[in-house]
Amino acid sequence: MDIDPAWLPPAAFRAVGGRRTLVRGAGPLVDTVRGEVAAACERFGGRMVPEEARADLVLELTGDTGDEGFACVRADGTTTVTASGGPGLLYGLFHVVRLGEDAFRGERAREEHRPAVALRMLDHWDNVAVHPVMGQVERGYAGGSLFWSDGRARGDLERVRAYGRLLAACGINAVAVNNVNVHETEARLLTDRIGEVADIAGALRPYGIRTHLSVTFAAPVVLGGLPTADPLDERVRAWWAGATARVYEAIGDFGGFVVKADSEGRPGPFAYGRTHADGANLLAAALAPHGGTVHWRAFVYDHRQDWRDRTTDRARAAYDHFVPLDGEFAANAVLQVKHGPMDFQVREPVSPLIGAMPRTRLAVEVQATQEYTGQQRHVCWLGPMWSEALRFRPDGEVSAGRLADGLVAVSNVGDDPFWTGHPLAQANLYTFGRLAWDPAADPRAVLGEWIALTRPEAPARLEAGLRAVLDGSWRTYEKYTAPLGVGFMVQPGHHYGPSVDGYEYSPWGTYHFADRDGVGVDRSAATGTGYASQYAKPWSELYESPDTCPDDLLLFFHHVPYGHVLHSGKTVIQHIYDTHFEGVEEAEEARRVWAGLTDLVDPAQHARVADRYEEQVRCAREWRDQVNSYFLRKSGVPDERGRTIH
Ligand code: GCW
Predict the structure, then answer these.
(1) Which of 50, 130, 415, 480 is the most buried (most CB within 10 A)?
(2) One CATH from 3.40.630.10, 3.40.50.1220, 3.30.70.100, 3.20.20.80 for 119-454
């Protein structure tokens, strides 16, 4: 099967390709721009023109827009894009592609575009060797890895280059090529196997993408033969400096390291009585002379807790571990924080760490791979969720300050011909890139862009159909899964499908505490774990009381009786029943809408999505029936509307 062109089908270049274009400037990314325009012209009959000739489109390396910014203006029949850096010129070209014919109509006042966030990154949780439990890609739902296959580099660099092209077209500029859980084979990418990483970096570079590597904190021991990985040991520091210098010999523009330390059993500084700042600064020092950055993950919590112990609250962990270290991290260390305090659930509050470390560089991590949101068998467009998180202001609506230096998504891409397994999951990847470029963008406008690019000739009925099935899909998914922010209730291990008590008596810190009287986790300061007080005002006050806590998050913050009345006017138990019935109905309706688009979508793609809708509806019914039956049996409260609950 051919590889799906995703949001860069040839027809997306029709407007550019039919015109006379002048590209002015030199450098590798300018060559990429030239190559793109030349290919489009070949297809659509336009041409590249020389200096003196009249041009419809000028793409020019000049001005002062910063490396990634560009300006666009149209006057006297010519559209001009200027940029002071190669990446900016490339982004400017893709901007014109997005505008399509509009780029060549009338006049356009000069507009400057610059990314609001400097680092826009995808982390691949790809293993080099197939892991006995996690497989080739940890939490991967799109086939194998684009980069690795069964212990080796996959070698298909054309595909990697095509991937880089798609990423550049939505504004992503960094990729980490291996899993943050760094196993034995993968550890060696840092040393004797760096050449394989260099090949990938070479294929991504023409699209302005820097390559990063996940490394193990124990590398000096497992690769260097040292007796310790203590960050304050001179031998350890020298080993990292040497290893890092050799990485830069192979990859001159290498981005840096990603580290998961003291997290879910990975090695880290705690073993040596050192702090996470000591750990991060060790790697930061090795990278600094070369201009690299260490991304140090804040996903540190006790994954061996006793479910009987109600005083330990996993949600508190990142804040408790890291806030005392504010100000201690090196300038080229970035703390990478999951957007919520738990783990990529369908509904979580924004992590209180965001905004609480003003003297530390921060990157926010979201999960495009749909581990907890339907595993790319369900349609769940996450744009609105990410947008809510990115618009969150730690001190209320007061500051418009900088939230993060970086935005990172765990990639949802594999070697699948549609890239993302579920063809409609491509929308998540595109939306992530565009929101990373501009976190204030309206996600629905971004969805519109994605539709227009992906299907340039789409009749209104297709556009409306795609919007109908994608727009509300996150809320639909939320409705038929765990209610009111309580989270989890998934099958342990693989995390697909319902199991209400699946994690209730486990060591993972993921409980809902349902009993015959009520459900939810008391995280208030007055009577609970105190998590609510990790927020600044007004959030700490708002979350503290069930009276002011938003309905969506009620069970995340409070344990309430089933008869507790929500702001919506419904009781908690009736809300659970109603949303679960509605969620299934909405999934069925989406399946119906998709079925009506048969004549407008490529048959292979239509069939793939139609199959997945069968599975989504089956699974949604399973969720509905297990969750509703569970709560009926616990509470004894019947459904007001007398529907079938088993
Ligand atoms: O969500 C959990 C996943 C793990 C993952 C971990 C993490 C890479 O279940 O598979 O490990 O988060 O983010 O480190």
Answers:
(1) 480
(2) 3.20.20.80
